[in-house]
Automatic annotation (TrEMBL):
Keyword Oxidoreductase part of the UniProt annotation: yes
InterPro entries to which the protein is assigned, alphabetical: FAD-bd, FAD-dep_Monooxygenase_BioMet, FAD/NAD-bd_sf
Cofactor or coenzyme needed: FAD
Keyword Iron: no
Upper lineage: Bacteria, Pseudomonadati, Pseudomonadota, Betaproteobacteria, Neisseriales
Organism domain of life: Bacteria
Chain ranges of the FAD-binding domain: 6-344
Entry protein name: 3-hydroxybenzoate 6-hydroxylase
EC number: 1.14.13.24
Record-linked SUPFAM superfamilies: FAD-linked reductases, C-terminal domain, FAD/NAD(P)-binding domain
Keywords: Aromatic hydrocarbons catabolism, FAD, Flavoprotein, Monooxygenase, NAD, Oxidoreductase
């Protein structure tokens, strides 16, 4: 008889985990609190490690069809408009890491995975299931939703995002509210200044702020993301934003990047947070995945990439366990916790460098200007060199 896995959360990580687990003859019940399986947001970046994971899950081609493959990653100084660094991500990059660097609308990558999930007879959905209680024992797990429905399974994966109910039950730790606020918007291509219609993510680094833009959906749209250190006491969450607030934080930068801030017609405002890395994500036949396990700020553009990696490793650990799910979960955690912790901590440091001011800004610019492509590639080998063949290495 097939084992039954409950996955809480129908986002990118939850769907990817479902695909990875059904390969091991596991039946999956996927619980989603929304009334339908979908995704919100704007653009995200996908490194070679993400495409390696998507390929292993069998949805790489679907995601590639919806991606824009970029030529280079560029970092500009928003104060004097000088170029700080440029990393080419064309043929030499692909040879080095085995996959491209792309950008994609969050809804499009979600759809690419969802299509495969919907076709699989061993995956069942339950929407409008807001989880309020989780229990587990040696015999299995039980999950209860707000309507009083109770779901039973042999094991549980909490992929329920940054404010995970499953994590609250398993770990109970507090989030680290960063004080950094992110605004996201999508702009039609014809509204972008012609000189900034660049096929690649361009980051404008300013004092205590930065903005990023890159093309989406075949170049028909551009994603625009701005980040600043808030003057307010922030609480982790999302709400509507205002152009006036954005403009108030982007003082002392050149008019060239600043003109982009007047383009969006609406903004979504995220007050960001992450969590301190921990030594364990679960117990027994329960574990965490994606943002529930290791929420990230945006500075390395690795949130979705890490969730996809998690799913691949989880599936492979289950495959190697001979049916022992608790042992498979502990091996998965042993592999994934150090890597994702490195990404969490490296992301924080990258945010500090992006937002450097004064002498620190000058040092940053001198440190990165003129660096060879090979030195850039060497610096990101630990991140982009991940693939399905080496994913169980520790």
């Amino acid at each position: 008889m097939a084992q039954r896995m409950i996955i809480v959360g129908g986002g990118i990580g939850g769907l990817a985990a479902a695909l990875a687990l059904v390969r091991q003859n596991i039946e999956v019940l996927l619980l989603e609190q929304a009334s339908s399986i979908g995704e919100i947001g704007a653009g995200i970046q996908l490194g070679p490690n993400a495409y390696a994971a998507l390929d292993d899950l069998g949805v790489g081609e679907a995601a590639r069809r919806r991606s824009v493959f970029v030529d280079r990653l560029v970092m500009m100084d928003a104060v004097d408009t000088g170029k700080i660094a440029e990393m080419a991500v064309g043929d030499a990059f692909r040879r080095r890491f085995g996959n491209p660097y792309g950008v994609i609308h969050r809804a499009d990558i979600h759809r690419s995975i969802l299509e495969a999930v919907e076709r699989h007879p061993q995956i069942r959905f339950q929407t409008s299931a807001r989880i309020v209680k989780v229990d587990w024992s040696d015999d299995g797990v039980a999950v209860e939703d707000a309507a009083g429905n109770r779901y039973l399974g042999d094991a549980l994966v909490g992929a329920d995002g940054v404010k995970s109910v499953v994590r609250e039950t398993l770990i109970g730790d507090a989030a680290r509210v960063s004080g950094h606020v992110v605004y996201r918007a999508v702009v039609e291509a014809e509204e972008m200044p012609e000189d900034l219609r660049i096929n690649g993510p361009v980051l404008w680094a300013g004092p205590n702020c930065h903005l990023v833009h890159y093309p989406l959906r075949g170049g028909r749209q551009y994603n625009l993301v701005v980040t600043f250190h808030s003057r307010e006491q922030e609480e982790w969450g999302v709400r509507e934003g205002s152009q006036a607030e954005v403009l108030s934080y982007f003082q002392g930068i050149d008019d060239s990047p600043r003109r982009l801030l007047s383009l969006p017609k609406s903004w979504k405002r995220w007050a960001t947070a992450d969590r301190q890395p921990v030594e364990s994500w679960g117990r027994g036949c329960a574990t965490l995945l994606g943002d529930a396990a290791h929420p990230l700020m945006q500075y390395l553009a690795q949130g979705a990439c890490m969730a996809l990696e998690d799913a691949v490793v989880l599936g492979r650990c289950v495959a190697a366990s001979g049916g022992g799910l608790a042992a498979a979960f502990r091996r998965y955690e042993q592999i994934r916790i150090p890597r994702t912790a490195r990404v969490v901590l490296s992301t924080r440091e990258m945010g500090r460098l992006y937002h450097a001011s004064g002498v620190e800004r000058l040092i940053r610019n001198q440190m990165w200007r003129g660096r060879s492509q090979e030195r850039f590639y060497d610096a990101v080998e630990w991140l982009y060199g991940w693939n399905a063949a080496n994913c169980l290495d520790t």
